[in-house]
Specification:
mainly alpha; 0% strand; globular; disordered N terminus
């Protein structure tokens, strides 16, 4: 039970951060579910803390902002999760 609770908080924070960054809720939920298992807690917090965008943002613009973080692993996981979720290939 504690393991499930430990994963739920970072995923919820990341999901909220992705929505705040301008991604649509369904895309953010899908991406967060994939990313929480692939990135460290520190990396997840860096993404969740991206500044708020001024409205709905395209995945390409969001990835441009993620690239500015300077972490190749964050970029790789975020872009692959975004692509799989946007195309409906992610579960």
């Amino acid at each position: 039970m504690l393991l499930l609770a430990g994963c739920a908080v970072p995923e919820a924070r990341l999901r909220a951060g992705l929505v705040n960054a301008g991604l649509p809720r369904p895309l953010a939920a899908c991406m967060a579910g994939r990313m929480v298992d692939r990135l460290s807690l520190n990396q997840l917090m860096r993404i969740a803390d991206l500044p708020r965008a001024g409205g709905a943002e395209s995945l390409d613009r969001f990835l441009h902002r993620v690239r500015a973080l300077g972490d190749p692993e964050i970029l790789a996981v975020t872009s692959s999760s975004g692509a799989l979720c946007a195309t409906g290939l992610a579960r």
